[in-house]
Amino acid sequence: MHGDAPRRSVPDVSELDLEHAIGQVCCFGWSGTDAHTVNEHARFIVEQLGVGSVVLLSRNVSDPVSTRAMLHELQGLARIPLLVAIDHEGGMVCRFADGLHAFPGNMALGATSHPYKWARLQARAQARELRAVGVSWNFAPCVDVNSNPDNPIIGVRSYGEDPQRVAALGVEAVLGLQEEGVLACAKHFPGHGDTCVDSHLGLPVVSKNLETLHAVEIPPFQAAVAEGTGSVMTTHILFPALDPERPATISPVLLDGLLRETLGYRGIVITDCLEMAAIAETIGTPQGAVRALQAGADVVLVCHTLDVQIETVRTIRHSVESGILSQNRLYEAASRVLAAKRRYVRASRSSDPVWLHPQHDRIEEAIARESITLVRNSGAVPFPASASVAVVAMHHGAGDVAQLLAERGVRTTPIVFDPDVSGVAMHEALAHVAQADRILALTAPREPWATRPIDQVAQAALIHKIHALHPERLVVVAIREPFDIRRFPQIGTYLCTYGYQRCSLRALADALLGRFQPCGRLPVTIPLAH
Protein backbone atom coordinates (compact mmCIF):
# COMPACT_ATOMS: atom_id res chain seq x y z
CA MET A 1 0.00 0.00 0.00
CA HIS A 2 1.88 3.05 -1.32
CA GLY A 3 5.22 1.30 -0.76
CA ASP A 4 4.78 1.02 3.00
CA ALA A 5 6.33 -1.93 4.82
CA PRO A 6 4.42 -3.99 7.40
CA ARG A 7 5.52 -3.56 11.01
CA ARG A 8 5.89 -7.32 11.49
CA SER A 9 4.80 -10.28 9.48
CA VAL A 10 1.25 -11.49 10.00
CA PRO A 11 1.17 -15.24 10.65
CA ASP A 12 -0.90 -17.77 8.77
CA VAL A 13 -4.00 -18.89 10.65
CA SER A 14 -2.54 -22.42 10.89
CA GLU A 15 0.20 -21.00 13.14
CA LEU A 16 -2.25 -19.81 15.78
CA ASP A 17 -2.95 -21.79 18.93
CA LEU A 18 -6.42 -21.56 20.46
CA GLU A 19 -5.53 -18.65 22.74
CA HIS A 20 -4.26 -16.49 19.89
CA ALA A 21 -7.10 -17.47 17.57
CA ILE A 22 -9.56 -16.25 20.21
CA GLY A 23 -7.57 -13.03 20.57
CA GLN A 24 -7.78 -12.31 16.86
CA VAL A 25 -11.59 -12.29 16.91
CA CYS A 26 -11.71 -9.75 19.76
CA CYS A 27 -11.76 -5.97 19.31
CA PHE A 28 -11.63 -4.30 22.72
CA GLY A 29 -11.48 -0.74 23.99
CA TRP A 30 -10.05 0.54 27.24
CA SER A 31 -11.06 2.97 29.95
CA GLY A 32 -9.03 5.73 31.56
CA THR A 33 -8.64 9.48 31.37
CA ASP A 34 -5.00 9.88 30.28
CA ALA A 35 -5.03 9.55 26.51
CA HIS A 36 -1.29 10.24 26.16
CA THR A 37 -0.05 6.92 27.51
CA VAL A 38 -0.73 3.20 27.29
CA ASN A 39 -2.46 2.57 30.61
CA GLU A 40 -2.83 -0.72 32.48
CA HIS A 41 -6.17 -1.56 30.91
CA ALA A 42 -4.80 -1.08 27.39
CA ARG A 43 -1.66 -3.04 28.23
CA PHE A 44 -3.70 -5.92 29.70
CA ILE A 45 -6.00 -6.41 26.72
CA VAL A 46 -3.02 -6.47 24.34
CA GLU A 47 -0.48 -8.43 26.37
CA GLN A 48 -2.68 -10.73 28.47
CA LEU A 49 -5.81 -11.15 26.35
CA GLY A 50 -3.93 -10.95 23.05
CA VAL A 51 -6.65 -9.03 21.23
CA GLY A 52 -6.35 -8.76 17.49
CA SER A 53 -7.88 -5.29 17.31
CA VAL A 54 -8.38 -2.27 19.54
CA VAL A 55 -10.94 0.50 19.23
CA LEU A 56 -10.31 4.15 20.06
CA LEU A 57 -13.06 6.12 21.74
CA SER A 58 -12.96 9.82 22.58
CA ARG A 59 -11.39 9.06 25.97
CA ASN A 60 -8.43 7.35 24.23
CA VAL A 61 -7.34 10.15 21.89
CA SER A 62 -5.69 13.49 22.42
CA ASP A 63 -3.78 15.46 19.81
CA PRO A 64 -2.73 13.53 16.67
CA VAL A 65 1.00 13.46 17.48
CA SER A 66 0.46 12.12 21.00
CA THR A 67 -2.07 9.58 19.77
CA ARG A 68 0.35 8.37 17.11
CA ALA A 69 3.05 7.86 19.74
CA MET A 70 0.64 6.04 22.03
CA LEU A 71 -0.48 3.70 19.26
CA HIS A 72 3.13 3.03 18.25
CA GLU A 73 3.82 1.96 21.83
CA LEU A 74 0.70 -0.20 21.87
CA GLN A 75 1.68 -1.92 18.63
CA GLY A 76 5.04 -2.72 20.17
CA LEU A 77 3.31 -4.75 22.89
CA ALA A 78 1.39 -6.92 20.44
CA ARG A 79 2.66 -10.33 19.30
CA ILE A 80 0.63 -9.94 16.10
CA PRO A 81 0.14 -6.47 14.57
CA LEU A 82 -3.09 -4.82 15.71
CA LEU A 83 -5.91 -3.47 13.64
CA VAL A 84 -6.64 -0.08 15.21
CA ALA A 85 -10.27 0.96 14.79
CA ILE A 86 -12.18 4.18 15.34
CA ASP A 87 -15.59 5.73 14.66
CA HIS A 88 -14.65 8.59 12.36
CA GLU A 89 -17.73 9.00 10.21
CA GLY A 90 -17.51 12.75 9.85
CA GLY A 91 -20.05 15.16 11.28
CA MET A 92 -21.45 14.30 14.68
CA VAL A 93 -19.42 11.10 15.13
CA CYS A 94 -15.69 11.81 15.18
CA ARG A 95 -13.59 10.63 18.11
CA PHE A 96 -10.86 13.22 17.62
CA ALA A 97 -12.28 16.35 19.20
CA ASP A 98 -9.26 18.32 17.99
CA GLY A 99 -6.55 17.84 15.44
CA LEU A 100 -8.10 15.81 12.66
CA HIS A 101 -10.79 17.23 10.40
CA ALA A 102 -14.32 16.33 11.49
CA PHE A 103 -15.71 17.15 8.02
CA PRO A 104 -19.47 17.63 7.62
CA GLY A 105 -21.46 14.45 8.14
CA ASN A 106 -23.28 12.11 5.80
CA MET A 107 -26.54 14.03 5.56
CA ALA A 108 -24.57 17.18 4.80
CA LEU A 109 -22.91 15.29 1.95
CA GLY A 110 -26.31 14.12 0.76
CA ALA A 111 -27.48 17.75 0.65
CA THR A 112 -24.65 19.01 -1.58
CA SER A 113 -24.79 19.64 -5.32
CA HIS A 114 -21.91 17.19 -5.97
CA PRO A 115 -22.42 14.50 -3.32
CA TYR A 116 -20.58 11.62 -5.03
CA LYS A 117 -17.47 13.68 -5.69
CA TRP A 118 -17.35 15.01 -2.15
CA ALA A 119 -18.09 11.65 -0.51
CA ARG A 120 -15.05 10.12 -2.23
CA LEU A 121 -12.76 13.09 -1.57
CA GLN A 122 -13.82 13.35 2.07
CA ALA A 123 -13.24 9.61 2.65
CA ARG A 124 -9.79 9.76 1.06
CA ALA A 125 -8.83 12.75 3.20
CA GLN A 126 -10.14 11.02 6.33
CA ALA A 127 -8.15 7.89 5.49
CA ARG A 128 -4.92 9.84 4.97
CA GLU A 129 -5.32 11.54 8.33
CA LEU A 130 -6.23 8.33 10.15
CA ARG A 131 -3.31 6.40 8.69
CA ALA A 132 -0.95 9.18 9.69
CA VAL A 133 -1.86 8.65 13.35
CA GLY A 134 -1.77 4.85 13.15
CA VAL A 135 -5.45 3.99 12.62
CA SER A 136 -6.13 1.24 10.09
CA TRP A 137 -9.86 0.57 10.43
CA ASN A 138 -12.64 3.15 10.23
CA PHE A 139 -16.11 2.12 11.41
CA ALA A 140 -17.62 4.02 8.49
CA PRO A 141 -19.59 4.66 6.36
CA CYS A 142 -22.97 4.58 8.02
CA VAL A 143 -25.23 3.35 5.19
CA ASP A 144 -28.48 3.25 7.12
CA VAL A 145 -31.41 4.72 5.18
CA ASN A 146 -33.04 7.38 7.35
CA SER A 147 -36.72 6.60 6.91
CA ASN A 148 -37.82 7.55 10.44
CA PRO A 149 -37.71 11.23 11.50
CA ASP A 150 -37.84 10.13 15.14
CA ASN A 151 -34.75 7.94 14.93
CA PRO A 152 -32.77 8.86 18.07
CA ILE A 153 -29.36 7.55 17.07
CA ILE A 154 -28.93 7.74 13.26
CA GLY A 155 -30.42 11.02 12.03
CA VAL A 156 -27.80 13.07 10.19
CA ARG A 157 -25.40 10.10 10.27
CA SER A 158 -27.42 8.84 7.29
CA TYR A 159 -26.94 10.17 3.76
CA GLY A 160 -30.72 10.45 3.43
CA GLU A 161 -33.95 8.61 2.72
CA ASP A 162 -33.35 7.38 -0.86
CA PRO A 163 -31.90 3.82 -0.73
CA GLN A 164 -30.18 4.07 -4.11
CA ARG A 165 -28.60 7.41 -3.31
CA VAL A 166 -27.45 6.13 0.09
CA ALA A 167 -26.02 3.07 -1.64
CA ALA A 168 -24.09 5.12 -4.19
CA LEU A 169 -22.69 7.52 -1.60
CA GLY A 170 -21.74 4.65 0.68
CA VAL A 171 -19.82 3.03 -2.14
CA GLU A 172 -17.88 6.25 -2.76
CA ALA A 173 -16.92 6.37 0.91
CA VAL A 174 -15.87 2.71 0.97
CA LEU A 175 -13.72 3.16 -2.12
CA GLY A 176 -12.20 6.41 -0.85
CA LEU A 177 -11.19 4.92 2.50
CA GLN A 178 -9.77 1.71 1.06
CA GLU A 179 -7.94 3.45 -1.79
CA GLU A 180 -5.93 5.25 0.88
CA GLY A 181 -5.23 2.13 2.91
CA VAL A 182 -7.89 2.19 5.63
CA LEU A 183 -10.32 -0.70 6.10
CA ALA A 184 -13.89 0.51 5.60
CA CYS A 185 -16.93 -0.74 7.51
CA ALA A 186 -20.49 -0.49 6.16
CA LYS A 187 -22.89 -0.25 9.11
CA HIS A 188 -25.33 -1.09 10.74
CA PHE A 189 -26.43 -4.28 8.98
CA PRO A 190 -29.18 -4.85 7.95
CA GLY A 191 -30.25 -1.27 8.72
CA HIS A 192 -30.73 1.06 11.71
CA GLY A 193 -32.53 3.85 9.87
CA ASP A 194 -36.12 3.09 10.85
CA THR A 195 -35.93 2.77 14.63
CA CYS A 196 -37.32 4.90 17.43
CA VAL A 197 -35.28 3.16 20.15
CA ASP A 198 -31.53 3.65 20.68
CA SER A 199 -29.92 0.18 20.78
CA HIS A 200 -27.46 1.53 23.33
CA LEU A 201 -30.43 1.73 25.69
CA GLY A 202 -32.80 -1.06 24.60
CA LEU A 203 -33.68 -3.58 21.90
CA PRO A 204 -35.28 -1.89 18.86
CA VAL A 205 -37.71 -3.79 16.65
CA VAL A 206 -38.20 -3.05 12.93
CA SER A 207 -41.47 -4.64 11.87
CA LYS A 208 -41.23 -4.04 8.13
CA ASN A 209 -42.16 -6.84 5.76
CA LEU A 210 -39.59 -8.62 3.61
CA GLU A 211 -40.45 -6.66 0.47
CA THR A 212 -39.85 -3.32 2.18
CA LEU A 213 -36.63 -4.46 3.87
CA HIS A 214 -35.21 -5.61 0.55
CA ALA A 215 -36.32 -2.39 -1.15
CA VAL A 216 -35.10 0.07 1.50
CA GLU A 217 -32.66 -1.31 4.08
CA ILE A 218 -30.68 -3.88 2.11
CA PRO A 219 -29.60 -2.08 -1.12
CA PRO A 220 -26.82 0.05 0.47
CA PHE A 221 -25.23 -3.06 2.02
CA GLN A 222 -25.61 -4.99 -1.21
CA ALA A 223 -23.81 -2.18 -3.06
CA ALA A 224 -21.03 -1.95 -0.47
CA VAL A 225 -20.50 -5.70 -0.61
CA ALA A 226 -20.40 -5.65 -4.41
CA GLU A 227 -17.73 -2.93 -4.34
CA GLY A 228 -15.53 -4.79 -1.85
CA THR A 229 -16.08 -3.25 1.57
CA GLY A 230 -13.59 -4.90 3.88
CA SER A 231 -15.97 -5.11 6.82
CA VAL A 232 -19.62 -4.88 7.77
CA MET A 233 -20.92 -4.03 11.25
CA THR A 234 -24.06 -5.68 12.59
CA THR A 235 -26.83 -4.01 14.55
CA HIS A 236 -28.62 -5.16 17.70
CA ILE A 237 -32.10 -4.89 16.21
CA LEU A 238 -34.86 -7.48 15.87
CA PHE A 239 -36.29 -7.86 12.37
CA PRO A 240 -39.23 -10.26 12.82
CA ALA A 241 -39.77 -10.68 9.08
CA LEU A 242 -36.22 -12.07 8.79
CA ASP A 243 -35.73 -13.70 12.19
CA PRO A 244 -38.56 -13.43 14.73
CA GLU A 245 -36.41 -14.56 17.69
CA ARG A 246 -32.89 -13.13 17.43
CA PRO A 247 -31.53 -9.62 16.82
CA ALA A 248 -29.28 -9.31 13.78
CA THR A 249 -25.99 -9.54 15.69
CA ILE A 250 -26.73 -13.09 16.88
CA SER A 251 -28.89 -14.26 13.97
CA PRO A 252 -27.46 -16.93 11.62
CA VAL A 253 -30.41 -16.20 9.35
CA LEU A 254 -29.15 -12.65 8.81
CA LEU A 255 -25.38 -13.18 9.00
CA ASP A 256 -24.72 -16.60 7.47
CA GLY A 257 -27.91 -16.52 5.43
CA LEU A 258 -28.69 -13.05 4.13
CA LEU A 259 -25.23 -11.46 4.31
CA ARG A 260 -22.99 -14.40 3.39
CA GLU A 261 -25.16 -16.59 1.16
CA THR A 262 -27.60 -14.15 -0.45
CA LEU A 263 -25.35 -11.10 -0.79
CA GLY A 264 -22.17 -13.15 -1.26
CA TYR A 265 -20.12 -11.31 1.35
CA ARG A 266 -16.66 -12.71 2.16
CA GLY A 267 -15.10 -10.01 4.32
CA ILE A 268 -15.08 -9.35 8.07
CA VAL A 269 -18.34 -9.17 9.98
CA ILE A 270 -17.94 -7.24 13.23
CA THR A 271 -20.60 -6.75 15.88
CA ASP A 272 -21.62 -3.41 17.23
CA CYS A 273 -20.49 -3.06 20.84
CA LEU A 274 -21.79 -5.98 22.86
CA GLU A 275 -21.95 -3.87 26.01
CA MET A 276 -24.90 -1.99 24.56
CA ALA A 277 -28.11 -2.66 26.47
CA ALA A 278 -29.79 -4.53 23.62
CA ILE A 279 -27.30 -7.39 24.22
CA ALA A 280 -25.79 -6.74 27.66
CA GLU A 281 -29.17 -6.54 29.41
CA THR A 282 -30.69 -9.51 27.60
CA ILE A 283 -28.39 -12.50 27.02
CA GLY A 284 -25.32 -10.72 28.38
CA THR A 285 -22.11 -9.63 26.67
CA PRO A 286 -20.06 -12.88 26.97
CA GLN A 287 -22.89 -15.08 25.72
CA GLY A 288 -23.65 -12.47 23.07
CA ALA A 289 -20.09 -12.83 21.80
CA VAL A 290 -20.41 -16.61 21.49
CA ARG A 291 -23.81 -16.36 19.83
CA ALA A 292 -22.51 -13.75 17.39
CA LEU A 293 -19.56 -15.94 16.39
CA GLN A 294 -21.89 -18.91 15.96
CA ALA A 295 -24.14 -16.80 13.75
CA GLY A 296 -21.29 -15.79 11.43
CA ALA A 297 -19.61 -12.74 12.98
CA ASP A 298 -15.81 -12.68 12.79
CA VAL A 299 -15.00 -9.99 15.36
CA VAL A 300 -16.76 -9.23 18.64
CA LEU A 301 -16.59 -5.62 19.82
CA VAL A 302 -16.46 -4.95 23.58
CA CYS A 303 -15.55 -1.34 24.21
CA HIS A 304 -15.52 -0.55 27.89
CA THR A 305 -15.21 -2.87 30.86
CA LEU A 306 -12.16 -5.00 31.63
CA ASP A 307 -14.04 -7.55 33.76
CA VAL A 308 -16.56 -8.05 30.96
CA GLN A 309 -13.75 -8.42 28.43
CA ILE A 310 -11.98 -11.05 30.53
CA GLU A 311 -15.21 -12.99 30.96
CA THR A 312 -15.91 -12.72 27.22
CA VAL A 313 -12.57 -14.34 26.38
CA ARG A 314 -13.14 -17.06 29.00
CA THR A 315 -16.61 -17.77 27.68
CA ILE A 316 -15.44 -18.04 24.07
CA ARG A 317 -12.66 -20.43 25.11
CA HIS A 318 -15.04 -22.59 27.16
CA SER A 319 -17.50 -22.65 24.25
CA VAL A 320 -14.81 -23.93 21.88
CA GLU A 321 -13.44 -26.49 24.32
CA SER A 322 -16.93 -27.81 25.06
CA GLY A 323 -17.97 -27.93 21.40
CA ILE A 324 -20.62 -25.23 21.70
CA LEU A 325 -18.65 -23.07 19.25
CA SER A 326 -16.99 -24.90 16.39
CA GLN A 327 -13.20 -24.55 16.30
CA ASN A 328 -13.44 -24.39 12.52
CA ARG A 329 -15.80 -21.40 12.83
CA LEU A 330 -13.36 -19.66 15.18
CA TYR A 331 -10.39 -20.19 12.89
CA GLU A 332 -12.41 -19.13 9.84
CA ALA A 333 -13.11 -15.85 11.61
CA ALA A 334 -9.48 -15.44 12.66
CA SER A 335 -8.31 -16.08 9.09
CA ARG A 336 -10.43 -13.16 7.82
CA VAL A 337 -8.91 -10.86 10.41
CA LEU A 338 -5.37 -11.91 9.48
CA ALA A 339 -6.12 -11.40 5.78
CA ALA A 340 -7.27 -7.83 6.51
CA LYS A 341 -4.13 -7.19 8.52
CA ARG A 342 -1.91 -8.20 5.62
CA ARG A 343 -3.59 -5.55 3.52
CA TYR A 344 -4.25 -2.73 5.95
CA VAL A 345 -1.79 -2.81 8.86
CA ARG A 346 1.02 -0.67 7.50
CA ALA A 347 3.71 1.50 8.97
CA SER A 348 3.46 5.20 8.22
CA ARG A 349 6.22 6.36 5.90
CA SER A 350 6.77 9.66 7.65
CA SER A 351 5.63 11.90 10.44
CA ASP A 352 4.08 14.35 7.97
CA PRO A 353 1.09 16.01 9.70
CA VAL A 354 -1.27 15.46 6.77
CA TRP A 355 -4.20 16.64 8.91
CA LEU A 356 -2.84 20.17 8.42
CA HIS A 357 -2.94 19.89 4.62
CA PRO A 358 -4.66 22.94 3.06
CA GLN A 359 -6.41 20.67 0.56
CA HIS A 360 -8.32 19.07 3.41
CA ASP A 361 -9.37 22.52 4.63
CA ARG A 362 -10.71 23.27 1.15
CA ILE A 363 -12.67 20.00 0.99
CA GLU A 364 -14.18 20.64 4.40
CA GLU A 365 -15.18 24.20 3.54
CA ALA A 366 -16.63 23.28 0.14
CA ILE A 367 -18.81 20.50 1.57
CA ALA A 368 -20.01 22.71 4.41
CA ARG A 369 -20.96 25.54 2.06
CA GLU A 370 -22.70 23.32 -0.49
CA SER A 371 -24.70 21.61 2.24
CA ILE A 372 -26.32 24.69 3.80
CA THR A 373 -30.00 24.36 2.94
CA LEU A 374 -32.43 27.28 2.84
CA VAL A 375 -35.71 25.41 3.24
CA ARG A 376 -37.87 28.52 3.35
CA ASN A 377 -37.20 32.23 3.09
CA SER A 378 -39.77 34.89 3.84
CA GLY A 379 -37.20 37.57 3.06
CA ALA A 380 -35.31 37.58 6.35
CA VAL A 381 -32.14 36.15 4.73
CA PRO A 382 -29.63 37.51 3.89
CA PHE A 383 -29.26 39.84 6.84
CA PRO A 384 -28.85 43.57 6.13
CA ALA A 385 -25.23 44.68 6.43
CA SER A 386 -25.95 46.85 9.46
CA ALA A 387 -28.29 44.44 11.23
CA SER A 388 -28.00 43.63 14.92
CA VAL A 389 -28.61 39.95 15.63
CA ALA A 390 -29.77 38.16 18.76
CA VAL A 391 -28.65 34.51 18.64
CA VAL A 392 -31.05 32.46 20.73
CA ALA A 393 -30.81 28.78 21.67
CA MET A 394 -30.97 26.13 24.35
CA HIS A 395 -27.75 24.76 22.87
CA HIS A 396 -24.14 25.84 23.34
CA GLY A 397 -23.88 26.52 19.60
CA ALA A 398 -25.43 29.96 20.19
CA GLY A 399 -22.13 31.32 21.47
CA ASP A 400 -20.18 29.89 18.54
CA VAL A 401 -22.55 31.33 15.93
CA ALA A 402 -22.62 34.71 17.67
CA GLN A 403 -18.82 34.77 17.70
CA LEU A 404 -18.60 33.90 14.00
CA LEU A 405 -21.07 36.62 13.08
CA ALA A 406 -19.18 39.12 15.26
CA GLU A 407 -15.94 38.21 13.48
CA ARG A 408 -17.73 39.22 10.27
CA GLY A 409 -18.64 42.64 11.65
CA VAL A 410 -22.16 41.94 12.91
CA ARG A 411 -23.40 43.26 16.27
CA THR A 412 -24.53 40.12 18.04
CA THR A 413 -25.96 39.08 21.39
CA PRO A 414 -25.92 35.37 22.31
CA ILE A 415 -28.78 34.29 24.58
CA VAL A 416 -28.74 30.70 25.84
CA PHE A 417 -32.02 29.78 27.49
CA ASP A 418 -32.25 27.27 30.30
CA PRO A 419 -35.34 25.02 29.98
CA ASP A 420 -36.03 25.71 33.67
CA VAL A 421 -35.77 29.46 33.29
CA SER A 422 -38.28 31.37 35.40
CA GLY A 423 -41.13 33.26 33.80
CA VAL A 424 -39.61 36.57 34.85
CA ALA A 425 -36.22 35.72 33.35
CA MET A 426 -37.88 34.53 30.13
CA HIS A 427 -39.84 37.77 29.89
CA GLU A 428 -36.67 39.85 30.40
CA ALA A 429 -34.77 37.84 27.80
CA LEU A 430 -37.57 38.12 25.25
CA ALA A 431 -37.64 41.86 25.82
CA HIS A 432 -33.92 41.98 25.09
CA VAL A 433 -34.39 39.90 21.93
CA ALA A 434 -37.01 42.37 20.73
CA GLN A 435 -34.38 45.08 20.32
CA ALA A 436 -32.48 43.15 17.61
CA ASP A 437 -33.03 43.60 13.88
CA ARG A 438 -32.85 39.83 13.36
CA ILE A 439 -33.54 36.99 15.79
CA LEU A 440 -31.58 33.88 14.94
CA ALA A 441 -32.97 30.86 16.80
CA LEU A 442 -30.93 27.64 16.74
CA THR A 443 -32.59 24.29 17.39
CA ALA A 444 -31.07 20.92 18.22
CA PRO A 445 -32.35 17.45 19.23
CA ARG A 446 -32.20 15.91 22.70
CA GLU A 447 -28.74 14.37 22.29
CA PRO A 448 -29.08 11.66 24.96
CA TRP A 449 -25.33 11.62 25.62
CA ALA A 450 -25.45 15.25 26.79
CA THR A 451 -25.24 16.02 30.49
CA ARG A 452 -28.57 17.75 30.20
CA PRO A 453 -30.49 16.87 27.02
CA ILE A 454 -32.51 19.65 25.47
CA ASP A 455 -36.19 19.63 26.36
CA GLN A 456 -37.88 19.52 22.94
CA VAL A 457 -41.21 20.80 24.24
CA ALA A 458 -39.55 23.78 25.93
CA GLN A 459 -37.46 24.49 22.83
CA ALA A 460 -40.54 24.50 20.60
CA ALA A 461 -42.41 26.69 23.09
CA LEU A 462 -39.57 29.21 22.95
CA ILE A 463 -39.72 29.33 19.14
CA HIS A 464 -43.51 29.77 19.25
CA LYS A 465 -43.20 32.67 21.72
CA ILE A 466 -40.63 34.49 19.60
CA HIS A 467 -42.59 33.85 16.41
CA ALA A 468 -45.79 35.19 17.96
CA LEU A 469 -44.03 38.45 18.84
CA HIS A 470 -41.61 38.91 15.91
CA PRO A 471 -42.50 36.64 12.95
CA GLU A 472 -40.91 38.83 10.28
CA ARG A 473 -37.55 39.05 12.09
CA LEU A 474 -37.21 35.42 13.14
CA VAL A 475 -34.84 33.02 11.37
CA VAL A 476 -34.72 29.44 12.64
CA VAL A 477 -31.75 27.17 11.94
CA ALA A 478 -31.70 23.46 12.68
CA ILE A 479 -28.05 22.97 13.57
CA ARG A 480 -28.38 19.21 13.46
CA GLU A 481 -31.66 17.41 12.60
CA PRO A 482 -33.66 19.04 9.79
CA PHE A 483 -36.84 17.53 11.24
CA ASP A 484 -37.05 20.12 14.03
CA ILE A 485 -39.48 22.28 12.03
CA ARG A 486 -42.22 19.70 12.56
CA ARG A 487 -42.78 21.32 15.97
CA PHE A 488 -43.22 24.82 14.52
CA PRO A 489 -44.38 24.53 10.88
CA GLN A 490 -45.47 28.16 10.68
CA ILE A 491 -41.87 29.45 10.59
CA GLY A 492 -41.25 31.58 7.50
CA THR A 493 -37.44 31.37 7.25
CA TYR A 494 -35.76 28.06 8.01
CA LEU A 495 -32.26 26.70 7.31
CA CYS A 496 -30.45 23.43 7.99
CA THR A 497 -26.74 22.84 8.60
CA TYR A 498 -26.87 19.08 9.48
CA GLY A 499 -24.34 19.54 12.26
CA TYR A 500 -22.63 22.11 14.43
CA GLN A 501 -19.00 21.48 13.56
CA ARG A 502 -17.06 24.70 13.22
CA CYS A 503 -16.92 24.38 9.43
CA SER A 504 -20.72 24.14 9.16
CA LEU A 505 -21.30 27.07 11.49
CA ARG A 506 -18.78 29.18 9.52
CA ALA A 507 -20.68 28.34 6.34
CA LEU A 508 -23.94 29.25 8.05
CA ALA A 509 -22.59 32.66 9.09
CA ASP A 510 -21.46 33.41 5.54
CA ALA A 511 -24.80 32.28 4.09
CA LEU A 512 -26.77 34.46 6.51
CA LEU A 513 -24.71 37.47 5.46
CA GLY A 514 -25.20 36.80 1.74
CA ARG A 515 -21.59 35.86 1.04
CA PHE A 516 -22.88 32.92 -0.98
CA GLN A 517 -26.28 31.63 -2.02
CA PRO A 518 -27.26 28.47 -0.10
CA CYS A 519 -27.82 25.69 -2.62
CA GLY A 520 -28.22 22.60 -0.43
CA ARG A 521 -31.21 20.32 -0.96
CA LEU A 522 -32.96 18.31 1.72
CA PRO A 523 -31.95 14.62 1.50
CA VAL A 524 -35.03 13.72 3.58
CA THR A 525 -38.69 14.64 3.53
CA ILE A 526 -39.76 16.83 6.44
CA PRO A 527 -43.44 16.39 7.32
CA LEU A 528 -45.28 19.72 7.09
CA ALA A 529 -42.22 21.50 5.65
CA HIS A 530 -43.41 21.69 2.06
Word description of this protein:
39% of the residues lie in helices and 12% in strands. α1 (18-24) packs across α12 (327-344) and α10 crosses α11. The protein has helices spanning 18-24, 40-47, 64-77, 106-111, 115-133, 163-179, 210-226, 253-262, 277-280, 285-295, 306-321, 327-344, 358-371, 397-407, 423-433, 456-469, 502-512, and strands at residues 26-28, 53-56, 83-86, 88-90, 93-94, 137-138, 185-189, 231-234, 268-270, 300-302, 373-376, 388-393, 411-416, 438-443, 474-478, 494-496. The protein starts with 17 loop residues before the first helix and ends in an 18-residue tail after the last helix.
Question: Could you write a compact summary of the structure shown?
Answer:
It is built from 17 helices and 16 strands.
Model regions low in confidence, pLDDT < 50 over at least 5 residues: 1-7
**Rg (CA only):** 24 Å
The structure class reads alpha/beta
Largest sheet: 6 strands, mixed
Features:
530 residues, alpha/beta, six-stranded mixed beta sheet, five-stranded parallel beta sheet, 16 strands, disordered N terminus
Write the layout of secondary structure elements.
Blueprint: H1 18-24, E1 26-28, H2 40-47, E2 53-56, H3 64-77, E3 83-86, E4 88-90, E5 93-94, H4 106-111, H5 115-133, E6 137-138, H6 163-179, E7 185-189, H7 210-226, E8 231-234, H8 253-262, E9 268-270, H9 277-280, H10 285-295, E10 300-302, H11 306-321, H12 327-344, H13 358-371, E11 373-376, E12 388-393, H14 397-407, E13 411-416, H15 423-433, E14 438-443, H16 456-469, E15 474-478, E16 494-496, H17 502-512
Parallel strand pairs: 1-2, 1-10, 2-3, 3-6, 7-8, 8-9, 12-13, 12-14, 14-15, 15-16
Antiparallel strand pairs: 4-5, 11-16
Helix pairs in contact: 1-12, 5-6, 5-13, 6-7, 10-11, 13-17, 14-17
